[in-house]
Amino acid sequence: MNSKQIKLGSATLGAGALIAMGAFGVSSGTSAAQDEPDPPGPATSEVVVSETTVVVPDVTAVQPQRPN
């Protein structure tokens, strides 16, 4: 096998790989665009808020002293 045959074989394999990658990219790009979910519509549920008493405990903090 001489170098011209090796170069021709490499070019053929490279071109085939390029075509295959292009076909894969087109097919995956097309299917991804079709699988997008519908955007959410307006909210239809109602929220009822009742009066609630919240008890909050007293919190005291002591500031640490600096070492001299």
Characterise this structure.
The chain starts with a helix and ends in a 34-residue tail after the last helix. It has 68 residues and is an all-alpha fold. Helix content is 47%, strand content 0%. The longest helix is centred in the first third of the chain and has 32 residues, at 3-34.
Kindly report how far apart the N and C termini lie.
Answer: 85 Å
SS content category: mainly alpha
Report the oligomer.
single chain
Low-confidence stretches: none
* Biggest β-sheet description: none
Topology, number of strands: 0
Helix content: 40-55%
Radius of gyration from the CA trace? 34 Å
Strand content: under 5%
Please state the average pLDDT score.
75
Q: Can you count the helices? A: 1
General form: elongated
Order of helical and strand elements = H
Helix and strand arrangement:
Blueprint (H helix, E strand, L loop, with lengths): L2 H32 L34
List keywords for this structure.
single chain; 68 residues; mainly alpha; 47% helix; 0% strand; elongated
